[in-house]
Amino acid sequence: MINIREIPFRTTISGLTHSISVIEYKHPQAKANIYMQAALHAAESNGIALIYLLREYLETHDFPYNVTLVPFANPFAMDIKIGEYTYGRFDAKTGENWNRGFKNLLTAHAGLEKIDLDAFVEKYQDQGFDTLCQRFSELLRARLAVSLQNDTAPHEKLANILHDLALAADFSFDLHCDSVSAPYIYAPSYLHSGRLKHFNSNAFILTPNEPSGCFNQAIFYPWWQLTDCWNRITGDSKTPPKHAFTYEMGNKESFDLKNAKHLLEGVLEYINNPANVKNTSNKYACYEQDFSRVRAPIGGMVNYQDNLLGSLQKPNTPLATIYDKNSIIGISKPQVLSVPHEALLLTRTSSATVHEGDEVLKVMTNCFNI
Ligand SMILES: [Zn+2]
Predict the structure, then answer these.
(1) Relative orientation angle of helices 154-166 and 215-234, to the nearest 10 degrees
(2) Beta bridge partners of 172
């Protein structure tokens, strides 16, 4: 059964109220909880296409999961247009990145002391890991409720509302897009296994056990810390229970239903099938520290090599060429951009014109097969 509800987010000067639409699908024999949000960075609209298709799928299939969908995770930012573009990554008034206001619920905030994980684990040690996880889930929800009462800055209020909707999810997907990009996925490194090959993307960035203000890390970080603490105290070898992903679904400023259908098929395979995939095409991962920017050594115009996006390149492969003013007027040669090691070219910036120091490309290095 599908239910739709609205959570008020923010009233505007003209009296409009922006609200968060939440699509909830409940199944009587649910095997797990799934959460998906799109367009938190409001110009990154391919995720809306995926949620649209998933909602249609849920209406016509018996899918044994509880599913919460938020197709417009940032309705206020979606309405801020600069010329023909959506100014969706930052709050136009404060400059805050909309994906940096999520709480590390372990730390002291709003009058709460930080969680003493050792004491928490020792308290529930005799009752087992599952009970520990249930109590921890309740604790996180109570701490987030305090934040929901206290935080009024827009990027924090929005983050708290979304965080609260995602808190019970076993599988969570924050759907984004990069500038001009092959599809790729951020996953916590504890999820590194052949199961990732179910996704219809061939590049994965493995994130470390560190906090940040972004949605995905806010979801998995407390659980990773808790599980590490449990394993240290009990000698056990549990894996954190959260399958939490940021999915970069290709180019921003696009609504590509064909691409979304292809990527959704992989998402459903990942959820439905815990087994590792063997003998399929190569898929590559690197650690987040090896996902880096190539910046413009000089200002000018860039001729990109979009045919190389998403594939592994040999060392010193020309990845783009910068035509600066001197090369245009004929007193120097254009500059070729490359990296001196094997690299997977993943994204390039949207504009053909860059100042010195601007980001031009993002590449994965020290890649390994999944
Ligand atoms: Zn984004």
Answers:
(1) 50
(2) 35, 244
| Cα–Cα dist 289/310, whole Å | 18
Distance from residue 177's CA to the centre of ligand 1 (Å): 6
Q: How far apart are CA 174 and CA 354, in angstroms?
A: 29
Digit-coded pLDDT (tens) for 314-360: 999 999 999 999 999 999 999 999 999 999 999 999 999 999 999 99
Residue 101's contacts (CB-CB under 8 Å, 6 or more residues apart) are: 153, 155, 156, 158, 159, 160, 213
Q: How far is the CA of 42 from the centre of ligand 1 (A)?
A: 8
What percentage of the chain has pLDDT greater than the value 70?
99
Task: Compute, in angstroms, the gap from residue 87 CA to the centroid of ligand 1.
Answer: 12
State in Å: Cα 41 to ligand 1 middle: 5
Provide the mean pLDDT of the chain.
Answer: 96
Distance 80 CA to ligand 1 centre (A): 16
Give residue 125 CA to ligand 1 midpoint distance, Å: 39
Which stretch of DSSP H or E encloses residue 70?
A: strand 66-70
Give this prediction's pTM. 0.96
Distance from the CA of 60 to the center of ligand 1, in angstroms? Answer: 30
Residue 320, beta-bridge partner list: 304, 337
Residue 95 CB coordination number (10 Å): 8
At 195-223, the pLDDT tens digits run 999 999 999 999 999 999 999 999 999 99
Residue 235, classified by CB atoms within 10 Å of its CB into exposed (0-12), middle (13-18) or buried (19+), is exposed
pLDDT tens digits along 47-69: 999 999 999 999 999 999 999 99
Question: Which 3 state secondary structure label does DSSP give 312?
Answer: strand
